[in-house]
Amino acid sequence: MSYGRIKDMLRRGEIIILDGGTGTDIQRRGAPMSGDTWCADANLTHGDIVRAVHADYVAAGADIVTANTYATSPLLFTHIGRAAEVPRIDKMAVQYAREAAKDSGVCVAGSMSTMRPMQSGSDRNQLAHEWEEEKARALFTMKADGLKAAGVDLIMMEMMRDTDYAVYASEAALATGLPVWIGLSAERGESGELQGWGRADCSLDDISGALAALKPDVMCIMHTSPNDTDEAIKILKRHWHGPIGVYPESGYFKSPDWEFVDVIPPGELVAASKRWQGLGATAFGGCCGIGPEHIAALAKEMQR
Questions:
Q1: Neighbour-count burial for 166-201, b at 16+ CB within 10 Å, e otherwise
Q2: Whose CA is closest to 73, among 151, 1, 6, 126?
Q3: Fewer CB within 10 Å, N- or C-terminus of the chain?
């Protein structure tokens, strides 16, 4: 499936099925996770597992699979002295996804994140590590250009959680000329309002406004608890009137591993997705903790 067909499906308001949690499924199949780079180095050491994860999502009925490039964040890799490796690792990741999707017509996306060094045993980024805007923008441009050179059909901005780095990264992706989907990640703050994941200084309302103004192809609520997703969609719709995608997480991260605890059953994800469809969403999948069995259920049960 070329992106031209995806664009037509979006225009017609048709249901699009995304894949599930690539990194967590790589872990579930036995590839070790790194305390420094999470699932990124699996592209170097466990390519067969990476390829098999994508192949299972293709077989499950996904219209788009996302290459394992989320964790090759240029911020993170610069911090650990490996920035020069990002284009090479991403090229390998995209190749595995392409091989899995061969002759299926499924689109291959590249993931971009603003991931920083993680706090061990936690799901929190080390926010003390900062980059000047000019440097951050240059790093995100390097990442985006590398994904384009690797041959992705579109770029998925994932876990966009603030009004600074998320804007820099998204603008770099849009500058490639590729289609861009922007995924917002939210959690409930101490005040009870939804905020950016790990960014108590950024309300979801402010994040939605800043990123919707960039006019991507699609905006998504992703890596957000299913319990908070309804409200997150409603907040997003204050600022965005285009296509909406939804792909929640289930379980929790305890760096470097995902904990598959109380993972939502496939039938419950389908039921929730139908509710989100009623709120205006047309693209559905899953993030961390969600596997091929969930995507197969969505592909079967969502009205196509």
A1: bbbbbbbbbebebbbbbbbbbbbbeeeebbbbbbee
A2: 126
A3: C
The amino acid at 196: G
CA dist 244 and 216 (Å) reads: 11
The pairing of strands 107-112 and 199-203 is unpaired
The arrangement of strands across the sheet holding 218-222 comes to 16-17, 283-284, 244-247, 218-222, 180-184, 154-160, 107-112, 64-66
Cα Rg, the chain, nearest whole Å: 17
Q: Are 228 and 187 in contact (CB under 8 A)?
A: yes
Contact yes or no for 72/90 (Cβ under 8 A): yes
Classify burial at 84, counting beta carbons within 10 Å of its beta carbon; exposed 0-12, middle 13-18, buried 19 or more: exposed
Count structural domains, the chain: 1
Q: Tens digit of pLDDT per residue, the chain (304 long)?
A: 589 999 999 999 999 999 999 999 999 999 999 999 999 999 999 999 999 999 999 999 999 999 999 999 999 999 999 999 999 999 999 999 999 999 999 999 999 999 998 888 888 888 878 999 999 999 999 999 999 999 999 999 999 999 999 999 999 999 999 999 999 999 999 999 999 999 999 999 999 999 999 999 999 999 999 999 999 999 999 999 999 999 999 999 999 999 999 999 999 999 999 999 999 999 999 999 999 999 999 999 997 6
Neighbours of 251 (CB within 10 A): 17
For every residue of 49-109, DSSP letters joined together read HHHHHHHHHHHHT-SEEE-S-SS--HHHHHHTT-GGGHHHHHHHHHHHHHHHHTTTT-EEE
Residue 288 sits at φ, ψ, to 5 deg, of -55, 135
Q: Could you report how far apart the first and last alpha carbons of the chain are, in Å? A: 15
Rounded CA gap, 294 and 297, in Å? 5
Look at the pTM and tell me if it is higher than 0.90: yes
Which domain covers residue 121, as residue numbers? 3-301
